[in-house]
Amino acid sequence: MHHDVSLITTIAAALGFGLVFGFLATRLKLPALVGYLAAGILLGPTTPGFVADAHLAGQLAEIGVMLMMFGVGLHFSLDDLWEVRKVALPGAILQIGAATAMGMGLAHWWGWSIGGGLVFGLALSVASTVVLLRALEERGILDSFNGRIAVGWLVVEDLVTVLVLVLLPALAPSLGGDATGADPEASLWKTLAITLGQVALFVGFMLVVGRKLFPWILWQVAATRSRELFTLCVIAAAVGIAYASTQLFGISFALGAFFAGMVLRESELAHRAAQESLPLRDAFAVLFFVSVGMLFEPSILVEQPLRVIAVLAIIVFGKSLAAFLLVVLLRYPVKSALMVSASLAQIGEFSFILAALGIGLKLMPPEGQSLILAGAILSITLNPLIFAAIGPLERWLSRNPSLAAKFERPADPLAELPMSTAHTKLAGQVVLVGYGRVGKRIAQTLNEHGIHYVVAEQNREKVDQLRRDGVAAVAGNAGEAAVLIQAHITKARMLVIATPDTFHVRSMADIARTLNPDIRIVVRTHNDEEAELLRKERVGKVLVGEEELANGMTDYVLETFKEPYQGNGH
Length: 570
Description:
Layout: H1 6-27, H2 32-43, H3 54-75, H4 78-83, H5 85-109, H6 114-125, H7 129-138, H8 145-171, H9 188-222, H10 227-249, H11 253-264, H12 270-294, H13 299-303, H14 305-329, H15 334-343, H16 349-360, H17 366-388, H18 390-399, H19 401-407, E1 430-433, H20 437-448, E2 453-457, H21 460-468, E3 473-475, H22 481-486, E4 494-497, H23 505-515, E5 520-525, H24 528-536, E6 541-544, H25 545-562
Parallel strand pairs: 1-2, 1-4, 2-3, 4-5, 5-6
Helix pairs in contact: 1-2, 1-3, 1-12, 2-12, 3-10, 3-11, 3-12, 5-6, 5-8, 5-14, 6-16, 6-17, 7-8, 8-9, 8-15, 8-16, 9-10, 9-11, 10-11, 14-15, 14-17, 16-17
Keywords: Membrane, Transmembrane, Transmembrane helix, Transport
Subcellular location: Membrane
InterPro entries: Cation/H_exchanger_TM, Na+/solute_symporter_sf, NAD(P)-bd_dom_sf, RCK_N
């Protein structure tokens, strides 16, 4: 009996070749995703030998996008999204406008139509969320303030792209494209109203119903004590909600899965859900990168090298520079601007969808899709190197304060403590770095015991609110001496580092000890390896989250056993 095994063949080839080339890439000191892309090129139709099923690979990659976005949602609360709205919302919209204008200018120079240039520019303006998440997770900065800005920025980009995908068919006739697929009876404003209404209905449903229903379902399944049922529930929620959101509300798979993760985050089992879905997320992420490689036509590098370079320049330098300037103009630190710039220096899944739609509507020539794919492959390959350049750039700017000062926000009132702050609160105080969930609880305890403290926090909105509440707070990265000086670290009794961003912990401790040799330092961390490294460097008292949880539970058990035991008589 003959069986169609194209799905099995595609998965086996993608994972097998991905493993081999990913291993070779890491041995050559390159990111593993470069190997996955190379495996995709080898399995694609443009290279000799075995050719995998590109259609099936694309669908498998879509599942990878869903699972990745679901995982982000499990770590990204609505509060996190709301906190970065003032930089992510205007920044993303203005950056899309700037990058689209650059793409349209390049397309006009090549003699393309306005419609073709618009689609081309939009495709170059939208970064890949999957690539960003891999970069942030590998560096352990997904939960940091800058990581939340980058994720929030891309969520806004995804929402804008969803609107564009719905409106483009309606706009196609006026842009010189094919009217096929556009509803002749629907006006542009009617289409826009329907789209916004669908998005609002979906978000409202997830906030009002999903926020209670889905965590409850997860808890009921967990009560069965069946690990496989729990894992099945998590995956079914990620894929099922993403699919339903597309069919019922017109939302993309990626955004549907992201909101699914955010509502399941309300459950006490969110951490376990993230752990159970991690292996599948990693496997399908590999399939995503392999599928991208399969779409690539290497001949474009020979036939149109200058055009490829121009496209890559817009992706890597043009829109990144625009994002950098926007973040600085929005009065955020240079380090945040560098992080967002590196995050946006690539394009991915939504760019491919826009390109395919543009060609289907006869707005963009087929050459545009090849150029977009070439730009995506090259920018994704270069992205880890761009992230790696952030550290050297920061150090170079620190050695050139006059240059750094040109980008820093001038006379930012939140970067300095108000003159009205009582001096009695600035001697023997605690300097509390980070005002997230952990920092907020520490602050509440300090208030209860009448202990003065100064908060150092990168989120300017939080600092503004703290000052309105009468709390001494400064905005900025505590890894910089100026921020700790403003927090009066020289007279502080203790430095408490409660931020999840542990990248700058050592510089915070070094600066604090230089300015105040007698200061005591306590640091939070998430894993034993990082804790051991910090202890060896004698940073201060290092507390590991899981370790402290175990200690607390153990103390409770021991206290219980000190009490007289009253059995039930059996």
